Amino acid sequence: MADVRIAGLEKRYGDHLVLPGLDITVADGECFTLLGPSGCGKTVLLRLVAGFEAPSAGTVAIGGVAMADAAAGTMVPPNQRGLGMVFQDYAVWPHMNVTDNVAYPLKLAGVPAEEMRRRASAAVAMVGLGGLEKRLPSELSGGQQQRVALARALVSEPRLLLLDEPLNNLDANLREEMRFEIKALQRKLGVTVFYVTHDQEIALGISDRLAVMDASGRLRQIGTPEEIYEHPADAFVFGFLGVSNFLPMRKGADGWLAGAALAPWSGIPPDCGGDVCRAGFRPSDVILSRGGEGLDGVVQRASFLGSTMDYLIDVAGTPVRAAMHSHECLEKGLMFAEGEACRVSLAAVHWFPGSDAEDAR
Amino acid sequence: MTTAVPAAQPRFGTAQILLALSVAILVIVVAVPVLLIFFNAFWVQGQFNVVDVIKVLSQHETYQALLNSLILASGVTVTGTIVGTFFAWLVTRTDLPFKGTMKVLFLVPFMLPSFIGALAWKMLLSPRSGYINRLFMDLLGLDGPVFDIYTYGGIILVETMYLFPFVFIQVAGALERMDPTLEESARISGADLFTITRKITIPLVMPSILSGSLLIMLYSMAHFGTVAVLGIEVGIYNIPTLIYEKIHQSAGSFASIRTGTVLASVLVVTAAFIMWLQNKVLARGKYQIIAGKSFRPSELKLRGLRVPMLLFCIAYIGFTIVLPTVTIFMVGGLRTYGLPFTAENMTLDNYKFILFDWQLTRDAIWNSVSLGFSAALITMTAGVIISYVIVKMKVRGKGILEFLGMLPFSVPGSVIALGVILAWSGKFGVNIYNTVWIILVAYIARYMAFSLKANSAALEQVHDSLVEAARASGATMWQALKDIVVPLVRPGMLAAFFLIFLPALRELTVSVLLYGPTTRTIGVAIYTLNEDGETVYSAALAGIALIIIVFGESVIKRLFKVGRKG
Ligand SMILES: Nc1ncnc2c1ncn2[C@@H]1O[C@H](COP(=O)(O)OP(=O)(O)O)[C@@H](O)[C@H]1O
Ligand SMILES: [Mg+2]
Predict the structure, then answer these.
(1) Cα-Cα end-to-end distance for chain A
(2) Which of A107-111, A126-130, B269-273 has the highest mean pLDDT?
(3) Residue A95: what are its φ and ψ, rounded to 5°?
(4) Which protein residues have a CB closer than 5 Å to ligand 2 (ion)?
(5) Cβ of residue A15 lying under 6 Å from some atom of ligand 1
(6) Substitution site in A11, A34, A43, A87 for ligand 1 pocket (most atoms within 8 Å of beta carbon)
(7) What is the CATH number of the domain that holds B425?
(8) Chain A residue closest in CA terms to B488
(9) ipTM of this predicted complex?
(10) Shortest-distance atom of ligand 1 to CA A40
(11) Are A180 and A2 in contact (CB under 8 A)?
């Protein structure tokens, strides 16, 4: 069993409270992602789990054993926590070749030479670096170094794998490829993975479950990727998971008004517990027409991006991004020019209370 | 709303112990001696006293020494800058044949101790007995010397030969790194090569020229050897040689020590000012040259001047490097100084005698080797620990470490020696005057900054995550240090070791102020033998020193080449 239980975990540096009391449970064999903006405390959290930092309050337990407990003064050093870790900068040792890098954890564990060689070369092969065993890190590309780091973290078959934005520095193709590989390895080995990133695409693609953290280190929502994408708990989560539009709504004397300029709107939002709310929707959920239902808009910018048309539309003083398939636009005569008027209606709307557009970001 | 945050308890852990230890080492070895100098200079009978300092400075002898230091340093700076800049330009920006080889050869003077060079020039150009002077007097029937080396001009000339590489290195580096597009764009807009050089190249290279010439000035100001060999005989003293004279001749009387400390204070302040100036120049020059990979700069075609220029370079190298070196070895092989160089006058007995039979020279070689080795080992080790605290540990108060460690960079050798005498001749209950230990302590102070620089640079390459990755792999703190940090820092440590060992081996300025009857170093032995008129033995020992130095330098070169590959 290698579940991770984080309870009441708090971390402060001097007066600066980075993590204000977190509760997270990662199940055994699960791939769990913590998603949050840069500087929100992801690395700090991972370092607390790894044992490079001691918590100011709260506990961390791995596999049911307390690793850190601020109240009891428990602090198991990182080398006794039985984990593998991949750092954001890979941290591949420059003076060791690929095999030596990968075999080092086995050497420390006192694995016999013969078995060490076998397992190290299996791990190297597993990440697709067969044939490069004798290379020094300086002779490898960034992606290859990253695989060395991954092989090194996995070679001793740790019960828990910690990953700190390991795909950040890779180019787009390699990032996608590595994402699938990590996922496949995790399934094959059954290892528990705790992954932190600010990249929502990776988080959605790789996780069994994920948690979304805001800039102040508070958790906004925990759930499966589908739950979080389809049912975001609040405007922050919705905004963080992709390109998003927020259209403010206000209840007037004769019905609801939309946009910053308060244009009359015929619909009625679901009960948001007030007279002010926001409609959140993705660009792909915007339906444009030349004279149908909906709000009046003016096309501010039209960009042809190949398979999609990307529009920026002014809807009652609020900018709205819209994306439509190019061929659909062509078929239906919806290729708008800049400055043209259009009608805007919405297919799928998430309603959020309040007007404070600030907390969306 | 305010919440009471419990203040983090200052814990007395490993970090604090290491910090305390490092500060203690640096304070005892570096800070106390330097402070004692100022204290002795400005504190008379329990009172702060400037009038007395001025009185000392206005004595004819001290005043003249200050003036001489200034004259010599300025002269060397001007000639060294001209020579260094010219050769740097020649090997980077023209189509001179064998440029690469020439570039290496122009750096050789760095390796050779200048007082040995001075010794050779004395043998060649001393007014009466110098070989060259005698040759011309005989050939042309002159009754005076062609050139008298015992003059300001002679001293400046000899120092220039050994110090011009400071400018050469900096300027050649800058010319190589300079973005050629800067010049090309000027050329496209129609400027001729002369205008480009005047308007673009020289302004861009100016910071490097200035910083190199300031280094020459710093070294020349505090330089002992050449002036001691060529100047003392005719009464030309600069600050370091006058300090030496004061301490040595008057057997440590209060008045002479005070004169010494006042002179040393002047030297420290001047050196600190030059260092400060140099830092400023470097900081300003940093963004002016677009640093990066080596470009292929446009080359001036020398055309008809190609061969003459090459011959000129070869002549320069032959005259300044080969001739003195050969002279040293030849004189070292003479039966008696002054005899002509004929086969029956030559012998290897001198070399045999000083290597195997003579206690004085054997002691000197042993002293230099063991002192150099111990100083290098101790300074390297202390340097690693102190750099570790400075670079890696998050403890308050490490800024003072950096300051203390780098202090000796601006403290000339004679000042360190004087400070060490003040601190370690019984004032604080420890008297190691006249023993090797006092030289060892002085060497540690002198070379600590070298070690800190090399080790800090190496440690900065070792990112924290490399150590943490080892910890996450199951390594204890000590295993991570052993398997990751030490192997990665080893090249820096090795560099530090040799950066100390080699200079210490040929060192004169510090040990000449500290040596006792049985604690001569190689440098001191060469110098005192020459003073005592034992010229052939002095030359023979100098020859052996040259062999040891060249051997040492090539060992390091090999070592670092292998290290970089492996
Ligand atoms: N050792 C430290 N001392 C003080 N503040 C720190 C330290 N480590 C991290 N922080 C602060 O904690 C916050 C979160 O940092 P981090 O966890 O690195 O963010 P990210 O989510 O981008 O990984 C930042 O504001 C950072 O300044
Ligand atoms: Mg981070």
Answers:
(1) 38
(2) A107-111
(3) -95, 0
(4) A 43
(5) no
(6) A43
(7) 1.10.3720.10
(8) A95
(9) 0.83
(10) 21
(11) no
